[in-house]
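In the current project phase, the collection of sequences with tokenised folds has grown. A sample record is quoted in full directly below:
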Amino acid sequence: MGIAVPREASLALLESVRCLECGEIYSKPNAGGTVQKNPGCPTCGYVGWIPVSLPAAPRARRHSA
């Protein structure tokens, strides 16, 4: 009998993105990845996307004149 070795769980962070071709919202790995891990839009196959929630723009600093 062999010794049972527990499998390590692999977690991947996902982000919601919008397809630039058809507008479909879908999840993709946050860390990027290869075509095998992220083949593109599930509806049209296009690989161009933009995050659904964009990071906040930095505030402009006020300077005295």
In short: The two ends are 80 Å apart (CA to CA).
